[in-house]
Design goal:
This protein has helices at 47-58, 79-85, 97-107, 182-190, 221-227, 237-249, 257-264, and strands at residues 4-10, 15-21, 27-31, 34-38, 43-45, 62-67, 76-77, 90-94, 123-125, 130-133, 136-142, 151-155, 158-160, 201-203, 218-220. With 287 residues, the chain is α/β, with parallel strands linked by helices. It has one domain (4-264): 4-Layer Sandwich (Metallo-beta-lactamase, Chain A). The strands form three sheets. A six-stranded mixed sheet has the order 1-2-3-6-8-9, with helices on one face. A six-stranded mixed sheet has the order 10-11-12-13-14-15. A three-stranded antiparallel sheet has the order 5-4-7.
Length: 287
């Protein structure tokens, strides 16, 4: 029996969270959970993560892992909230998260003791590694470009692409974050994801409802190769890199970029309270 995929859509950040599970054994994994953050009030809320948790409990699922496709720049990870409420669940991410930690430790001038070895996460996944979550088998494919540490996860005949590949009518992830690379993204999509069988289902990390259409979050490798408006199978590297770099220069920074990244590189932990008992996020000021 193939695993079941249940999606949760957070309209505030256009994010898709997935619960993938075996309906017989109840083994499950969660991918890319959201911890709601209101930047104006600087207030956290667990509404999105609670919906995922409620589904898990209603279906008596045993969550083995909470997996991140990358250190998100558009939402704060809800992984720690879920881990606290799901005994035994471990948080995993691609091992190259260390590269992102090193970059942003300098960007935010974080405490010298902030570790850049990925040890904040329970599990650092290597490319090609097969992770067993009970009866579920999850293969990690490194798909850098959006960030240098992006991973996609293959479960049976489904691949969860994070921000590497979106629905065909939207395209691909942006590549203008520190250490991002349009050239790397071309390789990730064209030479890795597009080498998967055409019938494999693609589950995307975001959907921005282009042209006002209804939510869509699942395509196939074949559909992406034939119809992706930015990167089809016949698109050449030079044209894609030029397009992606030009487009990225016109894009505004994500609304939650600065608070999200510094929390997410720390595996979803908020900074430790200061001497007044309050936690503070750092926001660099650009001249």
């Amino acid at each position: 029996m193939k695993p079941i995929v249940k999606e949760f859509f957070d309209k505030a950040t256009w994010t898709l969270t997935y619960v993938v599970y075996d309906s017989v054994t109840k083994d499950a994994v969660i991918m890319d959970p959201v911890w709601d953050y209101d930047p104006a009030a600087s207030k956290m809320s667990t509404q999105s993560a609670e919906q995922v948790l409620a589904f898990v409990k209603e279906n008596n699922l045993k969550v083995h892992y909470i997996l991140e496709t990358h250190a998100h720049a558009d939402h704060v990870s809800g992984s720690q909230f879920l881990k606290k409420n799901l005994p035994g669940a471990k948080i995993g991410i691609g091992a190259k998260i260390t590269e992102v930690q090193k970059v942003f430790k300098d960007v935010f001038n974080l405490d010298p003791n902030f570790k850049t070895d990925g040890s904040q996460f329970d599990l650092l996944l290597k490319e090609g590694e097969i992770l067993a979550a009970g009866t579920l088998k999850i293969e990690t494919i490194y798909t850098p470009g959006h960030t240098p540490a992006c991973s996609s996860y293959v479960v049976e005949d489904s691949v969860f692409t994070g921000d590497a590949l979106f629905m065909p009518d939207y395209g691909t992830g942006r590549c203008d974050f520190p250490a991002g690379s349009a050239d790397d993204l071309y390789t990730s999509v064209h030479e890795k994801l597009y080498k998967l069988p055409d019938y494999y289902k693609v589950y995307v990390g975001h959907d921005y409802l282009p042209n006002g259409r209804a939510l869509a979050f699942q395509s196939t490798i074949g559909e992406e190769k034939a119809k992706n408006i930015q990167l089809k199978s016949e698109t050449n590297r030079t044209d894609f890199v030029e397009f992606r770099n030009t487009r990225d220069k016109s894009l505004a920074a994500p609304r939650l970029l600065l608070p999200s990244v510094q929390v997410n590189i720390d595996a979803g932990h908020l900074p430790e309270p200061e001497d007044n008992g309050k936690r503070y996020l750092k926001i660099p000021v650009r001249d």
